[in-house]
Amino acid sequence: MKVIVDQHKCVASGQCVLTAPEVFDQREEDGIVVLLTETPPDHLMDDTRQAAILCPAQAIWVAEQEKQEGEQ
Amino acid sequence: MSTISASGTDVPPAEVPDYPMTRAAGCPFDPPPALHTLQEQAPISRVRLWDGSTPWLVTRYEDVRTLLADPRISSESTHPHYPHQSPATKERRRQSRTFITMDDPEHARLRRMVTATFAIKQVEALRPTIQKIVDGLIDAMLAGPRPVDLVQAFALPVPSLVICALLGVPYADHDFFQANSRILVKRTSTPEQAQAATQQLIDYLDRLIGDKLAHPTDDLLSALAERVRGGELSRREAANMGMLLLIAGHETTANMIALGTLALLQHLDQLARLRESDDPKLIASTVEELLRYLTIVHTGRRRVALADIDTDGVTIRAGEGVILANDVGNRDPAAFPDPDRLDVARNPRHHVAFGFGVHQCLGQPLARVELQVVYGTLYRRIPTLRLAVDPDRIPFKHDGNVYGVYELPVTW
């Protein structure tokens, strides 16, 4: 999974920080989204996807990566 | 027989229902039944407003959410076909323009000037202060006479004290600004009443901004005054923004506290679940469920289409008004199973009570913390809290742009 954010679209609603605080933060001066990690670990994937769904400005994209060598 | 609407489209007059619609007797928490019928049978259809205009009404959750986030849908309230809630609202919007009825880039420029204050960490840092305010008001209630009106003793003071501290508005003036703000959110107010109330509030905020320019303190109005000094913002824009935040900061949350309390008192099994758990997750989930279930901004989000939009077999034409009915959207079974049941454990974070898209409520992190502290404290500290009158004697704000109760007599 790879996460992309668009700071120009962000309206600082903070939904992402409420949902996945290990992945997203807010800039102190204006609350605009800051991405803490582009590639969240497996246990944060559901929260990260949920953050993308809840973002009112649709400023978060989650690109799912194919599993390369099948299930281990 | 058909007629031509203001926007130039053929509309059969007899089939266009008036909006807003009436709730069913004895069902004060449920959206009007006619909205459910529309959601099932004609999810995008025309309604008739107070001024005779016939904008589109959108009732399904998914459509509400999609259209609120659609850049072809405008919030610009000066548009001739913008579907205003009432003559009073139309007058207020004319007199006091703020970013909630502007499009980008103007909207983003102004909104970003105040977003830092409502960032999650900033608001979380206020939690102890909010807890102290809530505890103090409960102490005063417990020490005072019974029964008491929960609206005046608790629901209105909690968010008013918080927003006053945040903005740097003296709470001692609360009777003045609450009275004027009540006129502005009431659908039956006349344009003259709205004009006078808006002017009073603008003059008041302008005076405060003048004070902050001379003697800055650590609050949001001082920060806006600083931008006025720097030439980024006009003094009028700062006063408009201050007025918006002052009204939005107390009207909505106050209604959620009082109406939410009534809803819990009418659903004692749910209240017991909340009271018997000390899990902050259940408290947070209760807040989300009450936001969804009650959807107090109950006359829809108002917009205008900027381009032709084809959706659900209907074409919304450029220039036509659109109302996104988030109240019935939040009761859509396609998005919330068994939607008319209040279930404090369901955690429906995807509800649209705060709207969606770039205009989603700026103050929602603050509202959430206030409501979490209230719902996590009040019923635990007063476990025998109950209505002091028969439920059908409670006066509801059917005439308000924000739904709630005018009074809530309680005892314990």
TrEMBL record, chain A:
Highest taxon of the lineage: Bacteria
Designated name of the protein: Ferredoxin
PROSITE patterns for the chain: 4FE4S_FER_2 (PS51379)
SUPFAM superfamilies: 4Fe-4S ferredoxins
Pfam families associated with the record: Fer4_13
Function per UniProt: Ferredoxins are iron-sulfur proteins that transfer electrons in a wide variety of metabolic reactions.
GO MF terms, alphabetically ordered: 3 iron, 4 sulfur cluster binding; electron transfer activity; iron ion binding
Keywords: 3Fe-4S, Electron transport, Iron, Iron-sulfur, Metal-binding, Transport
Boundaries of every 4Fe-4S ferredoxin-type domain copy: 1-29
Cofactor requirement: [3Fe-4S] cluster
Transmembrane segments: none
TrEMBL record, chain B:
UniProt keywords, alphabetically: Heme, Iron, Metal-binding, Monooxygenase, Oxidoreductase
InterPro entries assigned: Cyt_P450, Cyt_P450_B, Cyt_P450_CS, Cyt_P450_sf
Tree of life domain: Bacteria
Residue ranges, annotated region (Disordered): 1-34, 72-95
GO terms, molecular function: heme binding; iron ion binding; monooxygenase activity; oxidoreductase activity, acting on paired donors, with incorporation or reduction of molecular oxygen
Entries under PANTHER family matching the protein: CYTOCHROME P450 YJIB-RELATED, P450, PUTATIVE (EUROFUNG)-RELATED
Family label: Belongs to the cytochrome P450 family.
Protein name: Cytochrome P450
